[in-house]
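Hi P.,

Sorry for the delay on this. The queue was packed all week, but I finally got your sequence through. Input first:
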Amino acid sequence: YGYFYHTEYHDDRVSTFAEYLPAGIYEFTYRARSTTPGTYHHPAATAYEMYTPDISGHSSAGYLTIIPK
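Then the structure:
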């Protein structure tokens, strides 16, 4: 993933870390496993500097629909 040197996968989030990240638009892809069909609201992804949290960015929120096979 280019600038990201470490990634942590958790049940409720994915965290990535970078020493330096130039201004721009980035795309990060990961797999998720659905267990229950339905329509779910997902919050915006957020990014911020660990030691300067007032520098930040975010994606848009949205909805995800899981349909049974």
